[in-house]
Amino acid sequence: MVNDPRPARGAAIDVLGATQAFRTSGGDLLVLDDVSFSARPGEFVALVGPSGSGKSTLLRLLAGLDAPLFGEVYVDGRKVTGPDPRRALVFQDPTLLPWRTVRQNVATGPQARGRLAASQEVIDRALETVGLTDFARSWPSQLSGGMAQRTALARALVNDPSVLLLDEPLGKLDALTRRTLQGELLRLWEEHRYTALLVTHDVSEALVLADRVVVFSPRPARIRADIEVGLPRPRDQADPAFIALRERILTLLDADLAASAPSRQDGSR
């Protein structure tokens, strides 16, 4: 990771031998298989891998929404046993409540904790941070996809998270909006210095944003590689070093997909 003199406000993450399976009609489906890794306070880590390889499952374990079948998950040395607003999860779908305005959606967390009256300035600051002050009274149906995702980010930031878990938050956006919000995600991380974990299928996006890229194997997921990016920000995607890292990761993913593909018995190509 490139050295940064600013103090990190994020939490340390330790995943120790996490194994997770889901009950299906055909039996138990193993999703994570003895996964272990750590993230330093204030580090930005991207998780990449084939679809269904357990990346989102790992975020749910860190958020405390699910418990591992085996293994343990720790944040700042404390075992994760349930949800905590300081571990905020942002999904691909903004999941805004359509009957609440932008401001009311952002206020959902403080209101649920009985702290709405005391959090008005914090809510205003979160809206300003993501550039939505002028849209505070708008309804979700009036927002573009990018604005809806900004609202979801503000809803997470209002809780002053020490860990921000990002489950493909830009996956449904058009290319231009996605690139703009990549810059916003990086700006927010640099400003708040929380620990960020990003699930993405876009290897270039992972390299633009993250300090490290963790590559998952096909299900049941194991860690295939843990790669330090080590490039100064902002990152130039035409830089030969950037291209070499992207090709290295894509080669790993392609090799794993080829190895996991079912063999053909009919001689077809």
Number of E-state strands: 10
Structural class: alpha/beta
Write the CATH homologous superfamily of the domain at 13-94 and 162-260: P-loop containing nucleotide triphosphate hydrolases
Q: If helices are DSSP runs of H or I spanning 4 or more residues, what is the number of helices? A: 8
The succession of helices and strands, N to C, reads EEEHEEEHHHHEHEHEEH
Distance N terminus to C terminus?
A: 43 Å
Please list the strands of the largest sheet in the order they lie side by side. Answer: 6-7-8-3-9-10
State the major sheet. 6 strands, mixed
Please characterize this protein's 3D structure.
The protein is an alpha/beta fold and 269 residues long. It has a domain at 13-94 and 162-260: P-loop containing nucleotide triphosphate hydrolases (Rossmann fold). Helices cover 33% and strands 23% of the residues. It contains eight helices and ten strands. It has helices at residues 55-63, 102-106, 108-112, 120-129, 145-157, 175-192, 203-209, 240-260; strands at 13-24, 27-39, 44-48, 70-75, 78-79, 87-90, 163-167, 195-199, 212-216, 223-228. The protein has a six-stranded mixed β-sheet with strand order 6-7-8-3-9-10, sandwiched between helices. A four-stranded antiparallel β-sheet has the order 2-1-4-5. A hairpin with a 6-residue loop joins strand 9 and strand 10. It starts with 12 loop residues before the first strand and ends in a 9-residue tail after the last helix. Residues 263-269 have low confidence and may be disordered.
